[in-house]
Amino acid sequence: MKISVIGCGYLGVVHAACMARLGHDVVGVDVDERKIAALQSAAAPFYEPGLNELLADIQAGCTAHGAGTGAGAGSLRFTTDLEQIAGARAHFVCVGTPQRKGENAADLRYVDAAFASAAAYLAPGDLIIGKSTVPVGTAGRLAEDLHRTVPEARLVWNPEFLREGHAVTDTLHPDRLVYGIPDDEHRETTAAVLDEIYAAPLAGGSARLVTDYPTAELVKTAANSFLATKISFINAMAELCEAAGADVTELADAIGLDDRIGRKFLNAGLGFGGGCLPKDIRAFMARAGELGADQALTFLREVDSINMRRRIRMVELAREVCDGSFLGKTITVLGAAFKPESDDVRDSPALNVAAQIQLQGGNVVVTDPQALTNAEQRYPDLRYEPDLQFALAGADAVLLLTEWGDYTGLDPEKTATLVRARRILDGRNVLDPTTWRAAGWTYRALGRP
Ligand code: UDX
User: Fold this and answer.
1) Where does NAD(+) bind (predicted)?
2) Which of 48, 95, 105, 305 is positioned for an S-S bond with 110, CB 3.0–4.6 A?
3) pLDDT value at residue 15
4) pLDDT reported for residue 72
């Protein structure tokens, strides 16, 4: 099928590449010329495992077999010219919905602009499919606007649940596909087009749910709120464990064995960051307020503040380990990305902690295998060292804040030869305290004795 993807950010590029991999002929459009130029040479403008290989593979398939006939894959091209979406049967809108400056609400200007500008190129019967995370009620409003200009176009809300670091697999093999389609005479034919697009994941066992617009929109925000709540729950338990001398990792293992609870997303530590969970729970609260249902989500305020407290607690713990002051001390921060296997530093807990320590007089050195370029743009005043050995040299304390494999696999004996003082703070509860202590290290963690 001919498909367009409007917005080539994180979601859009992954979606476009995966749709081509599923056999469709895809055009990806973005206003950012630099981004499009990079994509035209099969280079994703961000780090995502497996994505560059997928882009190169599809491009090679297109060259070998002629545009549109890759072996097993479809075709994929990128352009800044929106006009090129004309002729596609389905148009996916994948633009960002960042948090508005100084407010909790989502900024919908990119979504509104994408729908408005795409409308000029839609033919009767075309689907325009929203994938961005939006406040509930947005799809209904966009559909009204759209039908004023293109009455025969159909709008679907089809939220995306991919995780950074697993984006390709999550898109090719999603747990579930949610189609938000109004319950009218076109519902079945519209769902059938989506079934054709997602034929391979459906055949592979992905669940499929057809709902109305508001339910589809809420599936996304409710899922992210649940995940955030689960993380903050275990981090609240970590606070309690610290007060009571208990071990939150053992607690999580034990409660996680109850399959009604489950062990996933019960990793206590520095808490959640990134471009989704923090902003999505805030936008959800703001939207609930607009709907007069703010009481229903007051618990999310607590989820947010438990999460932010982790960062402050980490700084306190580091100061305590550094004998009460950071002055004259070198603090090595392992990790800048908000999580491993990503170069995304949006709302990164690691960088937030690094910046706080620097503000309090510490000589901070940050290292990360992928995210330093992005980190430098966001926090230009921090000192960065790409080489792990150099970053560890002369450290008075080492803070493991993003659990990259390079750091979880560190050898305590070898690391001891690089640092000035054997002090390690495990912000993600991923190291074995016994081995580190046996090698003479002061080991401290959030929620462990
Ligand atoms: C999240 C959702 O998982 C995904 O379904 C949605 O589409 C987008 O938002 P993502 O932001 O990529 O995905 O990361 P995720 O793996 O959910 O992690 C979010 C944050 O939570 C990270 O900072 C991570 O370190 C933290 N986290 C996760 C914990 O602190 N503890 C855990 O147990 C799990």
Assistant:
1) 30, 35, 97, 133, 164, 279, 346
2) 95
3) 98
4) 58
Give the Cα separation of 48 and 370 in Å (integer): 10
Residue 181 and residue 252: Cα distance in Å, rounded? 39
Q: Which two tokens stand for residue 386?
A: 């790409």
Atom 3, ligand 1: residue with shortest CA distance: 163
Q: Which domains does the chain have, with CATH numbers?
A: 2-211 (3.40.50.720), 221-303 (1.10.1040.10), 305-445 (3.40.50.720)
Q: Looking at 18, 94, 276, 322, which residue is catalytic?
A: 276
User: Which of 19, 178, 159 lies closest to 89, judged by CA?
Assistant: 19
- H-helix or E-strand containing 415? helix 412-416
% of the chain surpassing 90 pLDDT: 95
Instruction: For residue range 195-230, list pLDDT tens digits in order.
Output: 999 999 999 999 999 999 999 999 999 999 999 999
Best residue among 46, 132, 163 to mutate for probing ligand 1's pocket (most ligand atoms within 8 Å of CB) is 163
Residue pair 97/85 in contact (Cβ under 8 Å)? The answer is no
User: Which is nearest to 16 in space by CA: 8, 86, 62?
Assistant: 8
Strand order in the sheet with 330-334: 383-384, 363-367, 330-334, 397-400, 423-426, 442-445
Q: What are 226-235's pLDDT values in tens digits?
A: 999 999 999 9
pLDDT by residue (tens digit) across 155-168? 999 999 999 999 99
Write out residues in the chain with pLDDT < 50, as ranges: 63-71
- Which atom number of ligand 1 is nearest to the Cα of residue 274? 11
Exposure of 111 in the CB half-sphere (CA atoms within 13 A) = 20
Distance in angstroms (rounded) separating the CA atoms of residues 154 and 175: 25
Q: So what's the ipTM on this one?
A: 0.98
- 276 is known as an active-site residue: yes
The encoded tokens of residue 413 equal 């004996």
Q: Which residues are annotated as a binding site for substrate?
A: 161-164, 220, 265-269, 273, 339
